[in-house]
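Researcher: Watch the backbone:
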Amino acid sequence: MHLPSSAWAFAPFVVVAAATIATRTYRAFRPLARRFCPGPPPSLTSRFWPLRWFRNSACWYDLTGLRPAPDGSITCPECGRRLHTVAQALFHTRRWRLARLGLVLTLAAALPIQTRFVRTWRWVKWIPTTALVAAERVCGPSLPLALQRQVETRVDTQVLDPEEARVLIPALIRDLKADGVNGNAERAMWLLPQLGNDALAALEAALRSPDWQQRQLAAHVLRGQPGLTPCDDLLRVTVEGLRSDDLPYERPDPSALRHYGHFTDVRNARGGFVYLLGFPDMIEPFIEPGLTSEDHQQRLLCAGLAGGAHLSRLIPKAAPILIEHLRANRVPEDARFAGAALFRFGPEVAPWLEPLTNSDDRQARAIARRILSDFVQEPVPARFLSANQTNAGINSANYDPSHEFFKDGTWWLR
């Protein structure tokens, strides 16, 4: 077998170890007539002291010639240790355990021979799953990357039993927090849905966390579960995510050296808007406070949800917000969005649109007239509209609110 040069450097250790073990074996089988007291039994804590593994701290009182008791036991006059049989006595006076020292030297010499096996982390596949998930629970993101990959493999192949999953779930929920570690939150979002109902219950509990990122990422994972009926906490956190925030692009820190923020592939405003639109009968008490929010994006999206869900009671609060975005401004696509939301309120919104028909703003005037026209007559078929729709603006020739769909008109949201 060809060995690397680094292995030959440890050859002297192998020779010393072999000689040590051979000497110790010879002495162990050599007959001795004297018997010595091993001393008091060591305490539990002293058993883990490394020096004790190699050094024998015995009493060394010579028990030769002592008369045993009727039951065959011998009591040491020096330390009071009672030996139940003569076999418990020591047959030597060597203070160092040379056999153990030789074994350690042998292992130290053999380790470089297996450096490739150790260095390439091929041994991690032999680690029990329970030990892996326990290490993940204790170490968190500081766990070596090879061990993290092994945990991912075992979760992905569904080899974890329910108890191991319950140990791993709290560690992944913890990784959803804003902790300054790159990538661990996205990894947790990938693994948690594969751990069953216990993970979903933990995610619902995380919706009440004081950590903003943990709440938003937990809501993102829950929104992706098919057939899951949203709880009140999920709807509340989803409306909270309609704000202009650090997802998916983190705002850069002006005091930091870097001029860009971290990226997380979670578009909570767009995804949350489309999700809430699917539950028109449940969202009214959650979006109503958003209509008076200080965040302009949250106000606009809550007003759009009110229109998309046809919540007529909210027209007095939502219509002014949407009408303001019908005017020409520097916000791309907001007029298309606002026009579609106003159209879905139905004819009940007409009193708020009629004053715009004589507005000085050409864009607001054109959209208001188109919406009112669609209320009293059949909308123009989409095939007759101009195909040259661009993001630069909106005009009466190529835009009809009745043909705008929210899921296609919210790509500009973060």
In short: The first strand starts at residue 74 and ends at 75.
